[in-house]
Structures are given as C-alpha cells and as structure tokens.
Design brief:
Helix content: 55-70%
Radius of gyration: 25 Å
Shape: globular
Number of helices: 20
Distance between the termini: 30 Å
Largest sheet: 4 strands, antiparallel
Number of strands: 8
Length: 511
C-alpha cells in the first residue's frame, strides 16, 4: 500500500472510533500525538482505538490524545483533517430537539463538572499553555539543529568551504528570529491577535535596540530571548483586551493595534528586555554551575526522576529552559541527561522479556515496541509494559539515574554534552549532539551514557523488578487465557483481550 494510502487508512480507522466527524471540535498534533477536542467523550471506543495497528496508545487529558509516533502523526493528521471536513460537509442537518432551560443548565453543569474532574489544576493548565507555545517550534529546531551539526562537521573537516556559509545561514536564521515565533504563538494561546504578539516580540531581535539605553546600559539585540518574547506577548494580549473593552468600535481598527504595540513595546524595551535578559543569564549560569559542581549527583537526580515528571506533565516546565540554553549556548546540556530515562526504560523492558519467558503477549509487545524505544519513543514500553507491572517502572528510573550520572560526571570534568534541539531522544538524538570538546568526544560520552542506562535498567529490573507473586502471576501464557475468568482481572490479560497479542504496546500513554 502506498504511504499516502496507508496514512489515510489509519485516519479512516480512527475517525469512527472517536465518534465521527460531528464529534470532533478541534484537531492538532505534536511530536508523537494526534490531539483531538471532542464534544462527547463517551462516544470514544478506547479499546478499539488501541487495537488500530498504527496506534501506540491513548491519553485522555484536556484533549484526547492518540499516540502515533514521530513522522507518522505528521502524515496522518492532514488526512484526518480532510476526512473530518468531508464528513461534516456530507452530514445531514440535525433535527431540532426542544430543550428546556433547565435541561440546558443541567447539561452545562454536567460538562463543567466533567472538565473539573480531569485534574485541570491552574499550574498544569499553565504548563500546557507553555507547551502549546513551544511544541509547534520543535520541527524547526530539529531541522535547523541537524543542519547546524552538519555545518560544524564540514567546517571542522575543511570540506566544501563554499557551501558552509549557506548552511550556517539556514541553521541560524530561525534561531535569530525565534522570539518572533514565540511571541506569535503566545498571543494566539492567550487569546490575543497572534501577529500583534509577533510584532511586539520582534522588537527584541531588532538590531536598532543596540542604540537604546535602559537601566544604565546599552541593550543588545536578542537580549531577553524567548523569555522576553513570552512576557512581551502576554503583556500585548492584556493591553489588546483592555483596548477592545474601552476603544469605540469605529476607532478600534486604528487605535487598538497602535496602543497594543506602543504600550507593550515601551515596557518591553525599558523593562522586560533587561529583566528577562538577567533571568536568561541566570538560567544558563545555574545550569553550568549545577553540572560543573554536582555533575554526577545532578545527573543521577535528573535522569532518575524524569519519567515521573513526564507522567505528571511537569516536564513541560523545562521547555523554555531548554530553548533559553539553546539560544545562549547553542545547545542544551539538560536534554542528553534527561534522555537517559529512556535508556533505563529500554533496559528494563529487555529484562522483563527474559524474566517472563512464558508470557507470549508481553514478549511480543516488547519486541514490537523496542525499536521505537531505542529511538526515544517510550510510550509503548512505559504504559504497555513497565508501569502496569509496577516494580519495573521504578527499576527503569534507576537505569535512567545511572545513565544520567554517567553523562553528568563528564560534564563535571568539563566535557559538556548538549543537544542543539529539543524533542528527540535515544538514538534519534545523535544527529543533534554538540559540545565543547569536539563531536567525537560528545558522541562517545552520550553513547556511553545510553549503554550505562541500558545495563543499569536491565540489571535492576532483572534482579529487583519482580516479586515472587508478580512472577507467579505474569510468567504464564496470556494469549490462550484472554477469555478466561481466572485471568481476566490481570492487567496484562485485560489488555491482551482488548487488542490482541501486541495490545500491551497500546495501553494509555502520557509522555
């Protein structure tokens, strides 16, 4: 089947299982997930969705998220959008159903209660907004980061000197204007006019600010970076909303944009750029200090606790920090350490494979999910293998801790290992690696960290990941017992029964 036909078939398989086109209110995607806004969550057929071959898992959050993996999700989403549009165009007009005011109020109250029940704390909602601002930028960060790495390699080798300036321009152009994109996305996310957010953020990177003095010193183009752009755009949204309330409609088209850019721009130039610049510098200084003085210990903590952070959604708070470090230093030293959590997970999964030789279902799940795990896509292994088993999730964190300690130790010795973009991990991070002691040393340290993570995760899981009761329960064939009342209560059997032998790889995902 042609790739386009395959992607359309996947979209066609998903659509009826989420309630059809009429039930879809919004469509978006990130690195690995198709994110859907749904009118009625009860229409979704979770088990059937998990059984779709291309689906790695599902997450029921503020949006309904279907894990498809990197690359696949970017190709399936446009096909899904087309099918939704076609479905809406061909849908008959719904018959009018009389609804009383009391019934309408009851429906609204029910919807409000259901939304509150989704653990939508203000802090988590704020982090989701931050993620919505930066996640759309990741493809450009990855592409430009790989080109930057290629250009650095060519420069070091002295090859193609006539081509490297062009590659440098391609790699640096986006980063030079990233503040504009952050401002645009911020205004869009906070309910303002996106182009006004971009216009205010553009002030930060305008070369002419070098002629302006604030707080007793000359400003520098780019001072404040993405944090300054974030603050400037949020301010612009509030100024714009204030103007919409007070400016007469006849003058709105002229006065509101002018006041928004003027007021927000003045505050940005004579306040935010300086403050955000100091904060950005402090972030870079702290990251360097942390790894220079407590490298192994810091790596142990960061690598060990990253998987729980991901499960809680708190990892999103690190996105602006990564971006700030990339802006300042050309790479983020935190991501290679955090990527060790995925290595611990892979090692743990391999240990589970050997510890459960009779459980065909889990072993097939691991075999199908390991290639994605090596490339940094951890949802199938985490939510289909280690987390349902309990202890192997903890021992996977132990593997990540040891891998993080290894990379952190070399940072402490002065060998910085960084990534020029955020998003990928595992083997997929190799093309984005950069450091201060040459690409060969950087790759060797990162590869060594992965090996340590694999080994530590394997050893910890093999020897400490199973109690006697757990082995007794799971080290049996699950496939023939899918309909058996005696085994219907176990997580592995329940999942296998809902989606076949490989369905453990399609358990709910939250990374």
């Amino acid at each position: 089947m042609a790739t386009e036909d395959k992607n359309r078939a996947t979209a066609a398989a998903i659509l009826p299982l989420v309630g059809g086109a009429a039930n879809v209110s919004s469509i978006a995607h990130c690195m690995t997930r198709l994110r859907l806004g749904l009118h009625d969550r009860s229409l979704v057929q979770d088990d059937a969705l998990k059984a779709v071959p291309a689906v790695m898992g599902v997450v029921d959050d503020d949006t309904y998220q279907i894990v498809l993996g990197p690359g696949t999700v970017a190709r399936v989403t446009p096909e899904f959008e087309k099918l939704v549009e076609e479905g809406r165009a061909s849908a008959p007009e719904p018959a009018a159903v009389p609804v009383t005011a009391d019934e309408l109020a009851a429906q609204g109250a029910g919807m409000k209660a259901a939304r509150k029940a989704k653990n939508a704390t203000p802090f988590k909602l704020f982090l989701r907004r931050i993620a919505n601002i930066f996640v759309p930028l990741i493809p450009a960060l990855i592409g430009c980061g790989i080109i930057a790495g290629l250009n650095g390699l060519l420069v070091n080798l002295g090859w193609l000197p006539s081509v490297t300036p062009a590659l440098a321009a391609m790699a640096s152009g986006f980063m030079a204007l990233i503040a504009v994109f952050v401002g645009y996305n911020t205004a869009k996310e906070f309910g303002g006019t996106p182009i006004l957010g971009g216009a205010v953020a553009a002030i930060i990177v305008f070369p002419g600010v070098a002629n302006i003095e604030a707080f007793g010193q000359k400003l520098s183009p780019g001072q404040g970076g993405v944090l300054g752009a974030l603050g400037a755009a949020v301010l612009a949204v509030y100024v714009e909303k204030w103007c919409r309330r007070w400016v007469p409609e006849a003058l709105d088209v002229l006065v509101t944009p002018t006041l928004t850019v003027l007021i927000s721009g003045l505050v940005t130039i004579f306040g935010l750029m300086y403050v955000a610049g100091e904060v950005s510098t402090a972030i870079g200084t702290f990251a360097d200090w942390l790894l220079s003085n407590g490298g192994a210990g810091a790596g142990l903590v960061l690598g060990g606790f990253f998987l729980p952070l991901v499960m809680l959604g708190l990892h999103q708070a690190l996105i602006p920090i990564h971006t700030t470090l990339i802006e300042q230093q050309g790479y983020t030293v935190l991501l290679p350490i955090l990527a060790m959590a995925g290595a611990g997970q892979v090692g743990a999964a391999i240990a589970v494979y050997f510890r459960l030789p009779r459980n065909e279902s889990i072993r097939k799940t691991i075999k199908s999910a390991l290639p994605a795990g090596f490339l940094g896509v951890g949802e199938p292994l985490i939510y289909g293998v280690s987390l349902p088993l309990g202890r192997p999730f903890i021992t996977a964190c132990v593997g990540g801790a040891f891998g993080g300690a290894f990379v952190g130790f070399f940072n402490q010795l002065g060998d910085a290992v960084g990534s020029t973009a955020i998003g990928p991990s595992g083997w997929a991070l190799f093309p984005l690696l950069d450091g201060n002691h040459g690409l060969g040393a950087t790759i060797a340290i990162y590869a060594g960290g992965l090996l340590v993570g694999y080994l530590a995760g394997f050893v910890a899981t093999y020897f400490f990941g199973f109690s006697k009761d757990l082995l007794t329960e799971f080290n049996v064939s699950q496939e023939p017992a899918a309909d058996s009342p005696a085994t219907a209560g176990s997580p592995a059997t329940a999942t296998a029964a809902s989606g076949g032998p490989d369905s453990l790889a399609k358990a709910p995902a939250g990374v």
